[in-house]
Specification:
single chain, 460 residues, alpha+beta, 2 domains, binds flavin-adenine dinucleotide
Length: 460
């Protein structure tokens, strides 16, 4: 059985940053990243090669899994804030989280990231904030950096090249079982066994169901009862340009009058592309944008998500989200796209109606359909009310040809009980990133990895 000083399950940004910080300070350490997906050098999704093809359900999804994690094909919007993107400030002070994010940024710049940032604190952005507030919409404060899909991938590749001789990176190695024996962690892949003194769970949302089961087995307490569900909106770039040109990504929050539910814009991609992804077995939507002018589209896309926290006795938010996504997949044979005007009229968008649309969908593989049959009424009402509200600050948002793709689901991973060092009740066993339910963004996931590396270095 091969033994390591530190075993990291998951090669996403949290696991990578953790390994980076450890080897930087202790090059003598024997560290392994166990990653069930492929190397960054040969991750490729059949869908991105031919946009019209359907998902072929690869054994591991190249978009979500592999070195770099699910962030590799994202456009790398790194947010400098603790207002959203995770809950690390429930464990560490906000100042400390911001210091960790700034430190992570220095690493990214070293590996090729831009130094340009967008901010919500400029005079023009303040005017936008005022306009939003006058319409009961609330623009969250943040600085954001946009690396661009193509650059993000290059930076992850540079990080891989830096780490590959210093850390054992085992691709196509899925850890199936964790046990604790004689003060060591035993990691089982069903074919091989490994052991380690320190163990870090960095499994991302894609591994969170499995990690939850492992925590239950190890009798680590868990909490989770939340889900964000909605659609991805796509409209001509010009409609939001006065906002996106200034702040790049506007995080707008709104409480609907009908239900007082929170609806928010999320992951805004000016002149971007809508994409489909396989989220724990169901086809959902997402978006990204390139920084290269020649790769930009004419549309802007963003998610509109309704946040729902379930109350007792229901405690299966992931199953609930999967169920709705499955229903939508069943109706649309994958992702559905519908014109807003058709949704309001209560009729399906079919291919003929879609052809009339002035807004051309960037996700060509989506099938025209009826989201009204897939989304529960409360979600639909909330989304419709939010679109009309956004129309007050970006005229044209509620146009007939605004496209709605469904469904977009953001699962919250169950959160294992962790102390302020992000350590479980087991000695030297930590959990970081989105899979631990404590972060929901590249910046905070990375910050949690650096933080745990420093805690381990301190112990060592
Ligand atoms: C299309 C897309 C666009 C996004 N855009 C942005 C953005 O612009 N800005 C932003 O802040 N966030 C964005 N996000 C979210 C962001 O990518 C995540 O918050 C971030 O990647 C979380 O990092 P992580 O290390 O916690 O997990 P992940 O990046 O998910 O990495 C976890 C890794 O663990 C591996 N793994 C899981 N279980 C096992 C196991 N049992 N054995 C071995 N390996 C395992 C997985 O294969 C995966 O590679 C986007 C996400 C997607 C999907």
């Amino acid at each position: 059985m091969k033994h390591y000083d530190v075993g990291i399950i998951g090669g996403g940004i949290s696991g990578i940053m953790c390994a980076y910080e450890l080897v930087k300070n202790r090059p003598d350490l024997n560290i392994c990243i166990f990653e069930r997906g492929s190397s960054i050098l040969n991750r490729s999704c059949p869908l991105t090669e031919d946009k019209a093809k359907k998902c072929v359900k690869c054994p591991t999804c190249a978009i979500m899994e592999g070195f770099g994690g699910c962030g590799s094909f994202s456009d790398g919007k790194y947010n400098f804030t603790t207002e959203f993107g995770g809950w690390l400030n429930e464990y560490i002070s906000s100042d400390k989280v911001m210091n960790l994010i700034e430190y992570m940024d220095l690493i990214l710049v070293d590996f090729g990231a831009t130094t340009q940032r967008f901010s919500t604190r400029t005079p023009k952005a303040r005017e936008l904030r005022k306009l939003a507030m006058q319409n009961d919409l609330h623009l969250l404060q943040a600085e954001v950096k946009h690396l661009g899909t193509e650059n993000n991938l290059k930076i992850m590749t540079n990080l891989f090249n830096h780490l590959k001789d210093k850390v054992d990176v085992r691709h196509h190695t899925e850890i199936k079982d964790i046990s604790f024996e004689n003060s060591k962690y035993i990691l089982d892949t069903a074919k091989e066994q490994f052991s380690s003194d320190y163990l870090i769970g960095a499994v991302g949302r894609v591994g969170s169901e499995w990690f939850t089961e492992q925590c239950k087995k190890l009798k680590i307490n868990l909490t989770n009862n939340q889900i964000d569900l909605g659609v991805r909106v796509e409209l001509p770039y010009e409609i939001f340009s006065h906002i996106t040109d200034e702040v790049y990504e506007a995080k707008l929050h709104y409480h609907t009058q009908k239900y007082n539910d929170l609806v928010k814009t999320f992951c805004m991609n000016p002149r971007g592309h809508v994409v489909t992804e396989n989220t724990i077995g169901v086809m959902t939507v997402n978006g990204h944008s390139y920084s290269d002018e020649s790769l930009k589209s004419d549309n802007t896309n963003f998610a509109l998500l309704v946040s729902n926290k379930f109350t007792s006795p229901f405690n299966e938010p992931i199953k609930y989200g999967k169920y709705i996504a499955t229903l939508s997949n069943m109706l649309g044979d994958g992702v559905i796209v519908q014109r807003f005007g058709d949704l309001i009229k209560g009729r399906r968008t079919n291919e003929k109606r879609m052809k009339k649309s002035f807004t051309i969908p960037t996700l060509q593989s989506a099938n025209a359909g009826d989201l009204g049959l897939a989304l529960p009424k409360r979600y639909l009402d909330n989304i419709i009310e939010m679109l009309y509200s956004l129309d007050n600050i970006a005229r044209g948002t509620a146009n007939y040809d605004t496209l709605l793709y469904g469904v977009e689901v953001k699962f919250y991973s169950a959160r294992p009980e962790l102390d302020e060092k992000l350590e479980t009740k087991y000695p030297n066993f930590y959990a970081i990133g989105d899979g631990a339910g404590i972060t929901r963004s590249l910046s905070q996931a990375a910050a949690s990895g650096i933080y745990v590396a420093r805690n381990i270095l301190e112990k060592l």
